[in-house]
Amino acid sequence: MKKIVIATAVSLFSAGVYAGDLNLHSNGFNYLTATQIKNGKIELPVPAAEVKAGVKCAHISGEITKLHLLPQTAKSLLFTYADTETLFNEFVAMWEPILEKFALKPAATEYKNGIGTLNYGSADGLVIRDFMAGDLRYNALNAAEITKLQHELLEPLEKAGMTPIASFTIKHSYFRPTFNIYYLTRPEANPDHEIQLRQLMTDYEIDFDLLANSVQIVKKDAAFSLVYIGKELGFKTKWSATEDGIKTKLEDYKKLLKENSKEFIASKIIKLEKPEVIGDITINYGVKMYFFQ
């Protein structure tokens, strides 16, 4: 922990808390831009939403080597980056039948400045969301291991009633061999509040037991990586010289979360086995805090 504590020492003892502390997201995968594609002490947890059994479905599978066929999701639409309208039409021709297979009605399309969108409607009000597995820990050269991991993520979605509609292995120079999953869920005005398949990645060991009643744990990928179904998780650490000091910082941060309409889940106060001394400052205590964005 020593390197991490030293790296964050400047902020550990700053007065109060600030809004920047809240901008924490659990999914380590950053969506591609057009340029990138072209260039290649334990608090009681909040109860999790009820998970209902789902009916297994025959999702579409295959391999994708052309990134313009790999859409990103938002609202009630799919969007992609394509160099030409011809490539976008190829994308539409591939995805319209997939939408129809799962009772989604293709709607208006638009292609402008290298970005194409395909809108759709749903009688049930459902929307498509996606999950990219590239940040998970697996042997990218072992196809069988990738397939096994794929099933480990698909089955919980089916059981939760979040129908998987497609899952593709991806082979492209931009990625190490990986896969993604498209599935159905219910939309929320704030996307952070949607029940989605997500990943929490932190610089510290995750306290899985503190989250078990608040999200559905899908896979404990590593000590610092969790795949789960639920709302967007946030994670924050604070440090102090004294136990009273760390308790104060915890309460201050909980107030900040409440003021910003974010839901506190749980926390864990830790006492360092060996104090960290940075100049005139001695760090003896830390707190790990979990919340919903």
Provide keyphrases for this structure.
2 domains, four-stranded mixed β-sheet, 7 helices, 293 residues, disordered N terminus, 14 strands, alpha+beta, Alpha-Beta Plaits, four-stranded antiparallel β-sheet
Could you describe the 3D structure shown?
With 293 residues, this protein is of the alpha+beta class. Helices cover 24% and strands 36% of the residues. It is built from 7 helices and 14 strands. The strands form 4 sheets. A 4-stranded mixed β-sheet has the order 1-7-8-6, covered by helices on one side. The protein has a 4-stranded antiparallel β-sheet with strand order 2-3-5-4. It starts with a helix and ends with a strand. Mean pLDDT is 85; it is low at 1-20 and 23-55.
In short:
This protein is an alpha+beta fold and 293 residues long.
Q: How many domains, in number, for the residues?
A: 2
| Major beta sheet summary | 4 strands, mixed
Helix proportion range: 10-25%
Order of helices and strands: HHHEEEHEEEHEEEHEEEHEE
Rg calculated over all Cα atoms: 21 Å
In which order are the strands of the major sheet placed?
A: 1-7-8-6
Query: What is the residue-averaged pLDDT?
Result: 85
Overall body shape:
elongated
Instruction: Quickly count the helices.
Output: 7
The amount of beta strand, in percent, is 35-45%
Number of strands: 14
Category from helices, strands and their pairing:
alpha+beta
Query: What distance separates the N and C termini?
Result: 26 Å
Give unreliable regions as ranges.
1-20, 23-55
